[in-house]
């Protein structure tokens, strides 16, 4: 390669639209940080941390922060400058962190679906199947398995030769836009990316879909109150899954080409879906709302006594 940096074309050339996007995405990023940090602190300061679902939720919030922070701060800064450049090293790092943290998030969403499936379908065996040791092993497997997924992606990207053309028609570095500017035939690499990222997204989505179908089928035998509570929790999970996996499958499970709509769909799984996760998991979860109210009201009361 004979280039040291790439030029990101971004979302739009319109200065007014860029200012609007700057304010919007800055708000989204701050909301994501505040919401996920509130969830993390609330879980850590309450007895819910020992519950498997909240244990997974705390890891999901951490991954949302890491995943979003690999893209959004750079996007926000680029909206204020004319030339949106990124060094070759930072571009490769962005490719790796996006796929690494994103794939861990996928694995944790699967673990949360399994947790709900066991809790609703086999409540008497729940503590046997889901305990802290197995939760730790699941999270460890998520990190190890997704490293196996992410390092081949990075290896394929680093091996691409780049010569002359360095303009990426996107707002962050991803594999398909990089394949477009690579100075070689990238068909085989594109097929491998689809087989890796695309199939992972599709298989995981099918597993999640089947697990929630089983849950809904089992709920027929529950009381009205039991169905309401279970649907409240599962409804929030299904919303997160659809917001994240729908655009992801469109982006990666197709022929290795780029479309103008890619940027819009990418906004869903990089910014919009992670921003809504804290709201979905708190406003749709009565237990989490009660715990957060208790933790923060208690903290406010103790601060008032101290003053």
UniProtKB/TrEMBL annotation:
One of the record's GO cellular component terms: plasma membrane
Record SUPFAM superfamilies: Family A G protein-coupled receptor-like
Keyword Protease: no
Organism: Loxodonta africana
Name listed for the protein in its UniProt record: G-protein coupled receptors family 1 profile domain-containing protein
Residues passing through the membrane, by range: 17-41, 92-114, 187-219, 231-253, 265-283
Family annotation (Gene3D superfamilies): Rhodopsin 7-helix transmembrane proteins
UniProt topology in membrane: Multi-pass membrane protein
Domain named G-protein coupled receptors family 1 profile: residues: 35-281
Cellular localization per UniProt: Membrane
GO molecular function terms attached to this record: G protein-coupled receptor activity; olfactory receptor activity
Assigned keywords, A-Z: G-protein coupled receptor, Membrane, Olfaction, Receptor, Sensory transduction, Transducer, Transmembrane, Transmembrane helix
Primary subcellular site in the record, as a coarse category: membrane
């Amino acid at each position: 390669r004979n280039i040291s940096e790439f030029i990101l074309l971004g979302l739009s050339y319109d200065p007014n639209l860029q200012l609007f996007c700057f304010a919007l995405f800055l708000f989204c990023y701050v909301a994501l940080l505040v919401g996920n940090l509130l969830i993390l602190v609330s879980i850590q300061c309450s007895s819910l941390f020992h519950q498997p679902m909240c244990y997974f939720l705390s890891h999901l919030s951490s991954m949302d922060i890491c995943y979003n922070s690999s893209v959004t701060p750079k996007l926000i800064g680029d909206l204020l400058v004319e030339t949106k450049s990124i060094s070759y090293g930072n571009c490769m790092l962005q490719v790796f962190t996006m796929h690494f943290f994103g794939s861990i998030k996928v694995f944790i969403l699967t673990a949360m679906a399994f947790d709900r499936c066991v809790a609703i379908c086999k409540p008497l065996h729940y503590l046997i199947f889901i305990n802290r040791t197995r939760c730790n092993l699941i999270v460890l497997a998520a990190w190890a398995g997704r490293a196996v997924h992410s390092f081949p992606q990075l290896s394929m990207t680093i091996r691409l030769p780049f010569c002359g053309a360095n303009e990426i028609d996107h707002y962050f570095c991803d594999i398909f836009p990089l394949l477009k500017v690579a100075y070689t035939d990238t068909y085989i690499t594109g097929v491998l990316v689809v087989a890796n990222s695309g199939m992972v997204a599709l298989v995981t989505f099918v597993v999640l879909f089947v697990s929630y179908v089983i849950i809904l089928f089992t709920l027929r035998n529950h009381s009205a109150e039991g169905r309401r509570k279970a649907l409240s929790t599962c409804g929030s999970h299904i919303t997160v899954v659809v917001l994240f996996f729908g655009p992801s499958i469109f982006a990666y499970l197709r022929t290795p080409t780029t479309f103008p709509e890619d940027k819009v769909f990418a906004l869903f799984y990089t910014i919009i879906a992670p921003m809504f996760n804290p709201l979905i998991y708190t406003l749709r979860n009565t237990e989490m709302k009660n715990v957060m109210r208790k933790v923060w009201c208690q903290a406010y009361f103790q601060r008032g006594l101290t003053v």
